[in-house]
Amino acid sequence: MEDHDDKLAAWLMLGITVAFKIGLTLFVVIAYPSGPNLITNLALNWPWLVLTVVVVVVLLGYAVWWLRLVRVRAKRARLLHGEWNVDSGEIATDRPRG
Description:
The protein is mainly alpha-helical. The protein has helices spanning 2-31, 35-84.
């Protein structure tokens, strides 16, 4: 159980650090709007920007994959239901129709 607690603490520390970094950068850019300030912040924080884009793309890819999985499973369930659950009026008999 300690290993889980250690991992949780590490992820929480990383999350707090990232949130503080993003929050402080946004505050500086909004509080002092100028071209050189924006360029300086982009130059100092470009690894964080790249990492953010990568994380967002990965999360969106996972979300699209998961939604497709849910839709395919629902379709499979409908097909199985349609194949095995036949109404009594649709049962085939040997006598001719009409």
